[in-house]
Design a protein that fits this description.
The structure holds two protein chains of two kinds. By secondary structure, chain A is an alpha/beta fold. In chain A, about 30% of the residues lie in helices and about 20% in strands. Chain A is built from eight helices and seven strands; from the N terminus they run βααβαβαβαβββααα. Chain A has helices spanning about 20-25, 45, 85-95, 105-115, 125-130, 160-170, 170-175, 180-190; strands spanning about 5-15, 70-75, 95-100, 115-120, 135-140, 145, 155. In chain A, strands 4-3-2-1-5-6-7 form a seven-stranded mixed beta sheet. The two termini of chain A are about 35 Å apart. By secondary structure, chain B is α/β, with parallel strands linked by helices. Chain B has three domains: about 10-170, Aconitase, domain 3, CATH 3.30.499.10; about 175-245 and about 270-290, Aconitase, Domain 2 (3-Layer(aba) Sandwich), CATH 3.40.1060.10; about 295-465, Aconitase, domain 3 (2-Layer Sandwich), CATH 3.30.499. Chain B has 15 helices and 19 strands. The chains are: A alpha/beta, B alpha/beta.
C-alpha cells in the first residue's frame, strides 16, 4: 500500500446529492476479474451516450476537468451497493480524494482501503467549493486538514486507524493476521 | 456489580469481539457465516493467491451463483456459453474454480440449493439468531430478520474474512424504529420499509444498526421481516435487526442446516437471551404508525423518493437533484402516478421473491391476463422457492396470465445477467433500487410490493392492489 501524507490536486464538482454506486459504475461492468483499467467505466452512463461517444455536457468531459484529482460531490455520496468497483474506478480514473458533506458507510470503508480519501466538510466549506470549481486543494493527511486556494485551512474528521494505515502504508490484512493467536483462542472457546 | 442494560445489538457484538476496540484501532470481530457469490469475490481470491493464504474456515463459507447468472435454464457450462456474454460466463467459471481450489462447497447450476444468496441462507437454516453474517453485497442486511448482525462488505474485506474469519470494525450506533398498529388489507411489508425510508431518508440510518420494534412486529412473518431488513441499507443503515421470537424459532426448526436434537434445545436457550433489555436505550428512535399505511410507490431515482399510491408527486422547488430525478423519470410534480402506463413488471429479487411474495402476486393474477404488450417477468428467489411454487401450481397461474416464469437469480434487479428493462422503458419492480439505469442502461423504475406489481400487470398501468383484495 502506497503511503499518503500530503498532496495537492484540482477539484471537479458533481453537485448531485445521493450519487449511488450504480452511477459511479453500472452493474454491467462488475463482471471484470481485475481492477486494471476500470477507470474507463467510471460514471459510464453519464460520461458516454448510447453510442459510446463522450457526452460533452458532462463535467468530466470538459477541458477544465482533465487534470482533476479531487471530486467534490453532493451529500451522501456512494450510497447503494457494496461494490468496491466504485472505489477502484475512481482511483483508476485518477481521483485521490472525494469531498462531500457525508458518505455512505460501505463506500467510505472501501475507499479508505484503496487509498481514496473521503473528506467530510461542513456545508459552508462545501458551498465555497461548489462556488469555486476547478480550484486547487492541498490535502494534508498528517494534520487532517485541507487548505483552500485562499490559504484557509479546514480540518476534517477521519478514523484514527484508517489515517494511521494510510500514512504508514499498513496492510490491514497483515494487521488482522498478526492477531491469529487471539482468533484461535476465540475459536477454541466456542 | 450491576450489569448495565444492553440492546440486542450490544449482546451480539460483545459475543464476537476477538480484540476489543480502542481509540487507535477498531475491534477485531469474529464472523460466523460468510456468504459469497460470483461478482464480488474474484479479486479477493486473487489476493489470497498472491499472498499464499488459505481460506481459514471453508465450512463457514456458503457459496452460490446469483448476480451475473442467467435465469434461463442452464444444465452445463456449455449452455452458459450460449446464453451469457463472455464477461459473466468467465466470472461463473472462475467462481467454480475458486471454490474448488479453496475447498468451498458451491451451490452451482446442478444444485437444488442454488438461489439468491439472501434467500438460500434463511431457507437452509444456516442464517441463525445471534450470528455475525457478512457478504460482498449490501442486501446482507436481510439476515437481520433472524436477530443476526448481518452487513455488506467490499471485496477487500471479503479477502479479510476468507483469510482470517474476522473483520476490523468500529461499533455502530443504534436506531430503534418502533412499528405500531396492524397492516391493512392490500398493504405489505414492502410498504412498511418504503414508508420508513421515505420518513428517515436515504441517509437516515448511516452509521446505525436499526432494531425494528413495537407491537406490529409480533404479527410479522419471517418473510415480511426479511423484506424489511433487506431494505435497511436503502436508508443507509449498517444493518437491520428483529429480536428472535417463536416465529423465528418455528421458521428455523427442521431446516437442513438448523441445529438438531439436543443442539436445537441448547441453541434455543441462547437465542431466547437475544432481546433488548427493558432499560436499554438507543442512540436514536423513530415511530411509525403502520395502521395508517396505504400501498407505497417510488416516483424518483432513489428509494427515499416515495409516496402513497393515491398521492401526487411532490415538488421540491430549487432542489436540483430532485429536479434531475424527475426529469430522468419523465414525471412532473403535482401529477398522480395511478393509471400511468408502464412497459415492464418485474416480480423478484432478494427483497420480494419468496413463496409468500409469489402467492401474493398469484392471488391477483389468477384467472386474469396481463396487459397486452406488457412484459411481465416473475423470478423465484431460489430453486427451492421455484419447486415449492410449482408444487402449488403458481407457475401455471403466472404462465396462463401471460407472464414469464424463470429459474432463480437476481435477474432484472440489477441488469447484469441478460435480464434488463430496456432503455427509456418504465417498470414497476418489487426489487430494492430505483437508481438511474439500475435495471439496465436508461431503465426507469417504480418500486412497489408484489401485490401492487401484480395489480399493475393486469392493467398495464400503475394500479392500487386494494381493488383486487377479497
Amino acid at each position: 500500500m502506497e503511503k499518503i501524507k500530503t498532496f495537492s490536486a484540482n477539484t471537479v464538482n458533481l453537485p448531485n446529492e445521493d450519487i449511488d454506486t450504480d452511477q459511479i459504475i453500472p452493474a454491467r461492468f462488475l463482471t471484470r476479474q481485475t481492477t486494471d483499467g476500470i477507470g474507463e467505466c467510471l460514471f459510464a452512463d453519464w460520461r458516454f451516450d448510447k453510442s459510446g461517444k463522450p457526452n460533452e455536457d458532462f463535467i468530466l468531459n470538459q477541458p477544465e476537468s482533465t487534470d482533476a484529482g479531487i471530486l467534490v460531490a453532493g451529500h451522501n455520496f456512494g450510497c447503494g451497493s457494496s461494490r468496491e468497483h466504485a472505489a477502484w474506478s475512481l482511483v483508476d480514473y485518477g481521483f485521490r480524494a472525494v469531498v462531500s458533506t457525508s458518505f455512505a458507510d460501505i463506500f467510505q470503508n472501501n475507499a479508505l482501503k484503496n487509498g481514496l480519501l473521503t473528506i467530510v466538510v461542513d456545508s459552508d466549506t462545501h458551498k465555497w467549493l461548489m462556488e469555486h470549481p476547478a480550484t486547487e486543494l492541498i490535502v494534508d493527511l498528517e494534520n487532517t486538514e485541507i487548505i483552500l486556494e485562499n490559504s484557509k485551512a479546514i480540518s476534517f474528521p477521519i478514523d484514527s486507524f484508517a489515517r494511521y494505515c494510510l500514512l504508514h502504508g499498513v496492510d490491514q490484512l497483515g494487521y488482522i493476521l498478526k492477531h491469529d493467536p487471539e482468533i484461535t483462542a476465540y475459536e477454541n472457546q466456542q | 456489580m450491576q450489569i448495565s442494560p444492553k440492546t440486542l445489538f450490544d449482546k451480539i457484538w460483545e459475543r464476537h469481539v476477538v480484540v476489543p476496540e480502542t481509540e487507535e484501532a477498531p475491534a477485531v470481530l469474529y464472523i460466523d457465516l460468510h456468504l459469497i457469490h460470483e461478482v464480488t469475490t474474484p479479486q479477493a481470491f486473487t489476493l489470497l493467491r498472491e499472498k499464499d493464504l488459505r481460506v481459514r474456515a471453508p465450512e463457514k463459507v456458503l457459496a452460490t451463483m446469483d448476480h451475473s447468472t442467467p435465469t434461463v435454464p442452464i444444465g452445463s457450462l456449455k449452455d452458459l456459453e450460449i446464453v451469457s456474454e463472455q464477461g459473466p460466463a468467465q466470472q461463473i467459471r472462475d467462481m467454480i474454480q475458486n471454490c474448488k481450489d479453496f475447498d468451498i462447497e458451491l451451490y452451482g447450476f446442478e444444485s437444488k440449493r442454488r438461489g439468491i444468496v439472501h434467500v438460500i441462507g434463511p431457507e437452509l437454516g444456516i442464517t441463525q439468531p445471534g450470528k455475525t453474517i457478512v457478504c460482498g453485497d449490501s442486501h446482507t442486511s436481510t439476515h437481520g430478520a433472524f436477530g443476526a448482525f448481518a452487513f455488506g462488505i467490499g471485496t477487500t474485506e471479503v479477502a479479510h474474512v476468507l483469510a482470517t474469519q474476522c473483520l476490523l470494525q468500529r461499533k455502530p450506533s443504534t436506531l430503534a424504529v418502533n412499528l405500531n398498529g396492524n397492516l391493512n388489507k392490500g398493504v405489505s411489508a414492502k410498504d412498511i420499509i418504503l414508508k420508513i425510508i421515505g420518513h428517515i431518508g436515504v441517509d437516515g440510518g448511516t452509521g446505525h444498526v436499526i432494531e425494528y420494534r413495537g407491537n406490529t412486529v409480533a404479527n410479522l412473518t419471517m418473510e415480511q421481516r426479511m423484506t424489511i431488513c433487506n431494505m435497511s441499507i436503502e436508508a443507509g443503515a449498517r444493518a437491520g435487526l428483529f429480536a428472535p421470537d417463536n416465529t423465528t424459532f418455528d421458521y428455523l426448526h427442521g431446516r437442513p442446516m438448523s441445529p438438531k436434537g439436543e443442539d436445537w434445545n441448547c441453541a434455543l436457550e441462547t437465542w431466547k437471551e437475544l432481546q433488548t433489555d427493558a432499560a436499554a436505550s438507543f442512540d436514536k428512535e423513530v415511530d411509525i404508525d403502520v395502521s395508517a399505511l396505504t400501498p407505497m410507490i417510488t416516483y424518483g431515482t432513489n428509494p427515499g423518493m416515495v409516496m402513497p399510491i393515491e398521492s401526487t408527486i411532490p415538488d421540491h422547488k430549487g432542489n436540483q437533484s430532485f429536479k434531475k430525478a424527475l426529469e430522468y423519470m419523465q414525471f412532473e410534480p403535482g401529477k398522480p402516478l395511478l393509471n400511468h402506463p408502464i412497459d415492464v413488471v418485474f416480480i423478484g429479487s432478494c427483497t420480494n421473491s419468496r413463496l409468500s411474495d409469489l402467492r401474493d402476486a398469484a392471488k391477483i393474477l389468477k384467472g386474469r391476463k396481463v396487459a397486452k404488450d406488457l412484459r411481465v417477468l416473475i423470478v423465484p428467489g431460489s430453486q427451492s422457492v421455484k419447486s415449492e411454487a410449482e408444487a402449488e401450481g403458481l407457475d401455471r397461474i403466472f404462465i396462463e396470465s401471460g407472464a414469464e416464469w424463470r429459474e432463480s437469480g437476481c435477474s432484472m434487479c440489477l441488469g447484469m445477467n441478460g435480464d434488463i428493462v430496456g432503455s427509456g422503458k418504465l417498470a414497476v419492480s418489487t426489487s430494492n433500487r430505483n437508481f438511474e439505469g439500475r435495471q439496465g442502461s436508461g431503465s426507469r423504475t417504480i418500486l412497489a410490493s408484489p401485490k401492487t406489481a401484480a395489480a399493475s400487470a393486469i392493467n398495464g398501468s400503475v394500479q392500487d392492489p386494494r381493488q383486487f383484495e377479497i
